[in-house]
């Protein structure tokens, strides 16, 4: 029902910035909450950020709060993750995710996502 394609990953030095983008296909993008997850080398996948269908509510993990910003443009079927003040511990494969939301509930879930992108590598050098 929805396909997600990520872009924007790469290599950056500590303290630098990077912007990840996720393009969604389908006619019902505005009915989905969106999230970003990451999997560092040798570790399990972890929650990073989420945004509600309207964009009014967001949630972040404590490790990225104040440094990362999630945003969405429903008219363009796009969601982005702006990453500033990057640290070596931010190195991971980053995944875009989507999940249908219950009508009338404008929330940003941290788990339970149904659709996933292919992932994009972010490497932060010391």
What does this protein structure show overall?
It is a single chain. By secondary structure, the protein is mainly β. It is 0% helix and 50% strand. The protein has no helices and eleven strands. Strands 2, 4, 5, 6, 9, 10 and 11 form a seven-stranded mixed beta sheet that branches. It has a four-stranded antiparallel beta sheet with strand order 1-3-8-7, with no helix packed on it. The radius of gyration is 14 Å and the shape is globular. The chain starts with a strand and ends with a strand.
Summarize the entry for a quick read:
The chain is mainly β. The protein has strands spanning 3-7, 10-13, 18-25, 32-39, 46-51, 58-60, 68-73, 78-83, 92-100, 115-116, 120-125. The strands form 2 sheets. Strands 2, 4, 5, 6, 9, 10 and 11 form a 7-stranded mixed sheet that branches. The protein has a 4-stranded antiparallel sheet with strand order 1-3-8-7, with no helix packed on it.
Contiguous uncertain segments of 5+ residues: none
Most strands sheet: 7 strands, mixed
Helix and strand string, N-terminal first? EEEEEEEEEEE
Judged by helices, strands and strand pairing, the structural class is mainly beta
The rough form would be described as globular
How far is it from the N-terminal to the C-terminal residue, by CA? 40 Å
Question: Topology, please?
Answer:
Elements: E1 3-7, E2 10-13, E3 18-25, E4 32-39, E5 46-51, E6 58-60, E7 68-73, E8 78-83, E9 92-100, E10 115-116, E11 120-125
Parallel strand pairs: 2-11
Antiparallel strand pairs: 1-3, 3-8, 4-5, 4-9, 5-6, 7-8, 9-10, 9-11
């Amino acid at each position: 029902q929805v396909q997600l394609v990520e872009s924007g990953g790469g290599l950056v030095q500590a303290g630098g910035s990077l912007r990840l983008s996720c393009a969604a296909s389908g006619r019902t993008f505005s009915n989905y909450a969106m999230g970003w997850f990451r999997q560092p080398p040798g570790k399990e996948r972890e929650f990073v950020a989420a945004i509600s269908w309207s964009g009014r509510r967001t949630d972040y993990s404590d490790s990225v709060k104040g440094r990362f910003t999630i945003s969405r443009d429903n008219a363009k079927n796009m969601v982005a993750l702006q990453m500033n003040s990057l640290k070596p511990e931010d190195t991971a494969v980053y995944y875009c995710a989507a999940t249908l939301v219950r009508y009338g509930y404008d929330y940003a879930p941290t788990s339970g996502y149904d659709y996933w992108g292919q992932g994009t590598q972010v490497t932060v050098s010391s």
